[in-house]
């Protein structure tokens, strides 16, 4: 009777460990998603700045 109870206890502990890891993966995936969103926003802002600078440069060249 000891071995079946031991197997059930080990199985339960295994599932508990997997649940903890699943929660950690979920939290890290959400954090990565926020970082990707922030990086995309910064890239878009830099692209807009570059476009404005290119237009300004083109006007300066046309003025010459």
TrEMBL record:
What name does this protein carry?
Membrane protein
Q: Tell me where on the tree of life, at the top rank, the source sits.
A: Bacteria
Q: Which organism is it from?
A: Streptomyces cyaneogriseus subsp. noncyanogenus
């Amino acid at each position: 009777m000891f071995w079946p109870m031991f197997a059930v206890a080990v199985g339960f502990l295994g599932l508990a460990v997997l649940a903890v890891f699943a929660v950690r993966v979920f939290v890290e995936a959400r954090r990565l998603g926020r970082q990707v969103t922030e990086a995309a926003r910064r890239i878009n802002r830099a692209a807009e700045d570059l476009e404005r600078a290119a237009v300004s440069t083109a006007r300066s060249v046309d003025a010459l």
